Amino acid sequence: MSMDAIPLDLLEVILLLVAWPIFLVRAASTCRQWRRIIARPDFLWRFRCLHRPPVTGYYYDTTQRFFSPSWWPNSGVDGRRFALDFLPAHHPMHGAWRLRDSRGSLLLLDHYKHRDDASRGMVVCEPVTRRFQKIRPLAQSARCYNTAAFLLDGDNAQQAAGGISMSSFKVLCLVYYGKHIEARVFTWGESYSWRDTSIDSESMNVIGVAMGSIHWYAGRRKVVTLDQRSAEFSSFTLPAGTEDWDSLVNQHRLAVTASRDGGVRIVVGVACGGMKVFARLPGGGSCEWVLRKWIPLSSFMAIHGLPWREPWYFSHLPISNHRTGAVLIVTTRMSLSQEPTTTPLMFRVDIETMAVEQMPDPNLGTAYPCELPWPPVFRTITKMIDDHGDRAT
Predict the structure, then answer these.
(1) Residue 307 CA: distances (Å) to CA of 82, 264, 381
(2) What are 16-52's pLDDT values in tens digits?
(3) Where is the F-box domain (predicted)?
(4) Residue 122: which residues within 8 A CB-CB, separation 6 or more?
(5) Which one of 55, 209, 260, 280 is most buried, counting C-beta atoms within 10 A?
(6) Which residues of 212-229 are buried (b: 16+ CB within 10 A; e: fewer)?
(7) Residue 117, SS3?
(8) Backbone φ, ψ for residue 299 (5° rounding)
């Protein structure tokens, strides 16, 4: 039976079952008929709902800003194609590009000039396609001493099957003025300028991402959330009397994640090495939280044969590392050599399925994950793939 004899609706179902997007790109390179099916927006939307683009590798914010492929060489992706040598050059004496965030296939960098924080410029780039967009510098007062920057989905991200792209993204900056914080959002494709958005807080500690919103702990049981689509802030209050929330944040023992049923979960690390998971009661008020489950991490890690040592803590940055239903935990491995040492290890733990995935070495610095572009840029990505079949023309 030839492939041409397969009904188109059945062929579409078969292609939807392809495990990874990179294999989907290879399938699109097989023949014109397959490419026409795969390139349809409705097919890409359905595929994106079933399969999240894999992380091709991680960028590390060091002097060299090096890239480490996560599944090279089995994928056939050439790690050299992820170099950032296409960015506008700057003389070392005048500052250097610095990684601030990543989301999907995009990176956010700023140009930091020593003792001249107000002149900072930004750029959003997509390494795999070697494209970049300069962002107008954020005007800052001399009173400003720090900023935090995040990449957000653009306004038409839903049409792009939930992804972020060079034609659809936002940049959020939190500008710290002593005990006061201002929030500003840049939206690509609109007025190409920054706009202020309301926030009333003296401190902001990232505690996770859930249901399209970034969550910060602002002290005194207050959690501030930013809806990434609307770029608007809201807040809710954690219940009194159940936990010492301020202490948990200081110890990095508080995290937020999303459940697969569409709810927000508050995850608390307990002293005995476990985690408590809180869920909000349906239709309840802002403080109607109940204990949903308790996870004994020590015995759980032992079952998987993973090294475990107290104390441990949650890792929140960069937020792009998070997945639905998962939290990042950092523990240590003890070496009993001539000079005993401890090595930090990071794992992603799914609080619902209890699946475990080891993350990049924290010793290398902050790791910024980079995915393949979505929707796929077929003509560009196929150049990176060691595909020995016939290519579409």
Answers:
(1) 32, 29, 38
(2) 888 777 788 888 888 888 888 888 878 887 787 677 7
(3) 6-47
(4) 100, 108, 109, 110, 111, 134, 135, 137, 138, 149, 171
(5) 209
(6) bbbbbbbbebbbbbbebe
(7) helix
(8) -70, -35
103 contacts: CB under 8 Å, gap ≥ 6: 151, 152, 153, 164, 169, 320
Tokens (6 digits) for 328:
């990042």
- H-run or E-run covering 15: helix 8-16
The radius of gyration of the chain's CA atoms, rounded to the nearest angstrom, is 22
Q: Distances in Å between the alpha carbon of 169 and those of 150, 152, 154, 182, 271?
A: 11, 6, 4, 20, 40
132: tokens are: 């970049």
CB distance 152 to 170 below 8 Å: yes
State residue 337's pLDDT score: 53
Place of tokens 């991490």: 297
DSSP 113: -
Upper half-sphere CA count for residue 129 (Cβ side, 13 Å): 22
Give the chain's mean pLDDT.
Answer: 77
CA pair distance 306, 345, nearest whole angstrom: 10
Running DSSP on this structure, what letter comes out for residue 226?
E
Number of neighbours of residue 120 by Cβ within 10 angstroms: 20
Mean pLDDT per 10-residue section of the chain, whose length is 393 residues:
72 84 81 86 77 80 73 56 82 70 90 55 90 82 67 66 77 80 81 75 84 86 85 86 91 89 87 87 70 83 71 78 79 59 79 82 81 68 43 38
154 Cβ contact partners less than 8 Å away, ≥ 6 residues apart: 164, 165, 167, 168, 169, 170, 187, 188, 189
Residue 181: other Cβ atoms inside 10 A:
21
- CB-based contact 363:344 (threshold 8 Å): yes
Total residues belonging to the chain: 393
